[in-house]
Every structure is written in structure tokens, then in C-alpha cells.
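Amino acid chain:
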Amino acid sequence: MPMTEQATGAHHPQPRPRSGGQSAPEHVTGAQSLIRSLEEVGADTVFGIPGGAILPAYDPLMDSGKVRHVLVRHEQGAGHAATGYAQATGRVGVCMATSGPGATNLVTPIADAHMDSVPLVAITGQVASKAIGTDAFQEADIVGITMPITKHNFLVTKAEDIPRVIAQAFHIASTGRPGPVLVDIAKDALQARTTFSWPPTMDLPGYRPVTKPHAKQIREAAKLITSARRPVLYVGGGVLKAKATAELKVLAELTGAPVTTTLMALGAFPDSHPLHVGMPGMHGAVSAVTALQKADLIVALGARFDDRVTGKLDSFAPYAKIVHADIDPAEIGKNREADVPIVGDAREVIADLVQAVQKEHAEGHRGDYEAWWKDLSRWRDTYPLGYDQPEDGSLSPQQVIERIGRLAPEGTIFAAGVGQHQMWAAHFIQYENPATWLNSGGAGTMGYAVPAAMGAKAGAPDRTVWAVDGDGCFQMTNQELTTCALNNIPIKVAVINNGALGMVRQWQTLFYNQRYSNTVLHSGPDDVNPGARGTRVPDFVKLSEAMGCYAIRCEDPADLDKVIEEANSINDRPVVVDFIVHEDAMVWPMVAAGTSNDEILAARDVRPDFGDSEDD
């Protein structure tokens, strides 16, 4: 896939040799060259499964003292684990699979990493070069298949190309806008004899990500910020990728403008900070959604005006001028035209904005946001995030997640699956620091949480890692608990078990007259066992114990804190807690798909009243 002239992301150095200069050539196989290359670029963990075409690489991998291989139970688990590793550590995640079905099982996590701009290198074996195109056993054109969902990919048919390609793959994945890079290596290239020396010559004509923003655009943005009456800093995941959170805090406090952090940016700005007005989007806080709608200036930093944030695009933020800063020029103007487009790395953009705003202040130009904050504070106080306790005395899923967050040790990393529990985890756990919230934002991949938590724990073994998962998501990738148990990766998993595909069921409740077609997980299609809430198929406690985990079930709110504290105290194996929660709990606020953000509901049938004064 050809790369754009200005490809895109993070603040990561180019891979460099560990030794002082060019190493002396070593006579090796292509497979040995691959493992040596991984050692030189600093890869310390690879998640994968061997198979015929990649098998030559697994022999020298056994001898490596620098690269740890984690044998997963499914290639999808390898890909999500590499993503979790990358999101928790800021380094490139690495996964490995064989040809054909091994490689195609990586497609979902590769697409997931592409949507969320995660630096990932996926290495796949391919059939021998002379067999390519013959429909050989376990052949799949994985380069062609992944072309739309990788930042770049390579097919390697010559052993001598392996060091250069690996160096380039890590460089491309981690610079500019981060993303996944696929390296497909023919089996005969792995088996052939070659020489290895490091560093190789990097040859990437046309790949020059722009990191330094244009000074004129920065000055224009600063003028808009200091002249606006209702500005908002709209912060996306790019700020985390660029490690720009310290600079963001300085800019926010300097300007006094409200800050919204997207689902991908939670932790980029402290939730507890008085300038934080919440997460925007379909299930965002009323204060955040409304701030964007009523703003006269939106400063978008490392965000892409995703449809989940904008709602119906032609009615989004009708009064706002747009400053859009992104390292990927393709994102600027893609969904919303920018009045001031800024191409550059978020850390450099924000640092330059700080200086430009300081200069405006020195010249007597300072924004007056007093009336704006009166409105913002009223919305925040009138429509706070909250939930009702179930009348039948059962567990509230929101309370479960809130208590997990409150009782978690300092520095805990949270990974979420996709659905209601993901939104509740976004709302009811407080994120104060970067790299503490991992989720599948763009693709919305069910099954993400357990393997991503595994990867995060492998990359940050000294930190507690909780996976907050739904019973639907959990049944997609829970086999990786076996991987965790056998590899001393003691994650903790909270299964928010409502017996249903919860978010889909919520939509059926609201938009399909409560016709629950194929969303009930705990009984058969004709519901022959109406008492099925009392049965457990599968029994997650027994299942987890069978995979080497410590498992607990919690059904009584009186036991909640005790069970969570018990889970936190066990660190010699994975822990799974099956929280049996009320099935009718819903995620609020909500903007229905395809509607305007002006139609946000704070709760069912509760439309906020904003008055008209803020529209003047």
C-alpha cells in the first residue's frame, strides 16, 4: 500500500542499533536474521502461535535471551495483546502468525489497531516464494487482504531484505500517525542463508511525516482562542500518542477554556480537573456534548471529528469556527472544514500554541469566558452522570464498575470490551493519568478486553490491570486466560454479566419495541427455561477455574467491596469475578444514531433544557 507523502503520529524515536556503530556481518539464516533484527529494534515481547510457514523463525526465537514469546491460544488474542502492550507502554507491539488462517485471524486486531492509530508490527509467514499465487496449502494473500487496514505492508521474498524491512516497519509503525505494519515473509526467505549486520540502510523515499507546525497557523489559532467567547478544547487520542498531556494541561490552564476528552483520550487530561467538562459523543456527558454544540470556537487536538462525537454532521457545532491540529493531513477537513488547519505533532503544536497565547496575553488580548463558564457549570451541575439502583435489590452494573475504580490500586490500567460496560467504565472510573484506559474505540471490537489486558500486563508487570468485560465479549476471547495463567500474567477480569448482548438489547428496548431478537445469552431461542437467570451456561466461575484462574461470583450488593478487595489481593494468578447484574440497566446520556447532538437525552425521556441565552 503506497504511503502518503506525509504519513502520520507519535513521538517515538527511529529504531537505532544497540551497539555503537555498524556491526560485523554474521552468517545466519533468514530466520536468525529476523530474530536478531527484532532484538536490535528493541522488541522484548512477541505474542504469537507457530505454524508451518513461520516455523523456521520459531527455532532461533527459542535461543533469544532478549525476546520473550507468549504463546497465545488464538491469533486474534495475539493481535489484541500486542495492541494492549503498545497502548500501555507507548512502544511498538509485536504479534506473529503463520500463513493462511493464522494470518487471516490477525485481520480483526490489525483493523482495530488501524482505526485507533496503534503502533503494531504483525509478522506473518508465507508459503515459499515459488508457490505464491498457486493456491498452495495455507496460502492467503495477506498483503492484499490487509492493504486497506495497514499503514504500510511488506512482502519479503529475499533473506537479505529482512533487517531493512524490520527496521522500516518499526519506524513506520511508530512515527507520524502510528499504525499497524504487516511484514509477510516467504518460508524460503526464512530458510535461506544470508548475512546479518546492523543497522541497515533505511530507504523510505516520500515518507517524511510533518511534525513541526506552521508558525502562521499557530498565530492565527492563538488569536481565535483569545478572541472567542465560547471556546472548547476538543482533545482526541492523538494527544496521548504524542505524549503531550503535560503541554495540554499548561494550555488549558493558560487559556481557561473547557476541555473535553474523547473515548480514545480519557486520561489525557485529569477527569477531576475543574476545566474538564467530560467525554463528548453518543454516550457523552451532557456538559461535553452541549459545550461543543454551543461553542463559537473548537480547537481540535489529535481528534478526527468521528461520527460518534459529531452526531448528525450537518448540525454539529453550528456556531463554531474550527482550529484542527492533526499529524495526519488527510484528517483535516475530512468531516468538518477547518478555518485554521494545522499539520503537526500534537506535542509540538500545543507547545507552540502555549507560547503564541502567552504572546497574545502580553499584548493585552485575553479571552473573557465568564459567561461561558456560567452556562457550562449549570449544565454540569444540572445533568451530572448518575444511575439508579435496581428496585429488586440486585447489583447495579454502574455501581460495580464505579467501586472497581475506587478500590483499584494507584496506577491501575483498565481495559474494556465493547458495549454498555465500556461506556460505564468510561463514565464511572476516574482517569487522572495517561495510558490508564485501553479500549477499542474506532472499530468497536468485541473480545478486545481480555487479550488487551494480557498485553498491557506483560508490558507493565508492576501495575494492576483490570479488564472490564461483558458476558458477550468475554465469550469471544476468554481462552487467553489460559495464556495468562501459564505465562504468569495475573490480570483481573470483571465480567459484567447481564445475560444479554447489553448494548444491542438497549437499542431493541428503545427502537425495536422490546423485541429481543437473539440478544439473550442465558437461554435458548424459545426461552424454554424461564428460570435461566439462575442457571449459568457457561458457568464463568467453573470455566475460569478450569483455565487456571481464581474465580468468584458476586450477586449481592452487600458483598461488592469485599469481593473486589479479595480480587485486588490475589496477584499470583489471573482473577475472574462474575458480577451478576440487573439486565435492564441502560447507558445514559444518549444521542440516537443519525440524530443531532441537540437531541441528547440525559436519561430516558429526559431532554435537557438549555434555555436560549447561550445561543445569542
Q: What stands out?
A: The longest helix spans residues 346-362. Confidence is low (pLDDT under 50) at residues 1-19, 524-532. The two ends are 49 Å apart (CA to CA).
